[in-house]
Amino acid sequence: KQWYQRRVAITAGTKTQIQPVIDAQLLPYIIDVLGRGDYKTQKEAVWAVTNLTSGGTPEQIMQLVEQKALPPLSNMLGVQDPRTVTVALDGIHNILTAAAKISEEVCNKVALMLEECNGLDLI
Q: How confident is the model at residue 10 (pLDDT cuts 50, 70, 90)?
């Protein structure tokens, strides 16, 4: 768990600090924990993902989408903890905002992905 809390802090940095996390190929591990970890660890993963969406560039944020972060992030909208739901919503909002900055086509693709993983139903 300690290693994971460090990852949460690392993704809370600037785009320059976030890039080494991506370069070290840690996103698949964070996304895996988000989807399959125990609840406490999933909550940490929601923060890690949302921190990256808050400080990253649109291209860095799209790395999350390419690595299939939307389904497990959307699933966290169904938990009973309002704070976790709010953090997941913030992450999804940031992902859609980043997609819109890239292009309307990318935004539409991300919105479709969100719909396909039942994210809109959970919202």
A: low
Residue whose C-alpha is closest to residue 67's, from 111, 34, 115, 104: 34
Give the C-alpha separation, 79 to 27, whole Å: 22
Mean pLDDT value of segment 39-52: 93
| Whole-angstrom distance, CA of residue 76 vs CA of residue 45 | 10
Q: What is the pTM of this model?
A: 0.89
Mean pLDDT of all residues in 93-103: 97
Q: Which helix (H) or strand (E) holds 110?
A: helix 104-116
Rounded to whole angstroms, the Cα distance separating 94 from 30 reads: 17
d(CA 86, CA 104): 25
- What token pair was written down for 13? 């940095």
Q: With beta carbons less than 8 A apart as the criterion, state whether 119 and 104 touch.
A: no
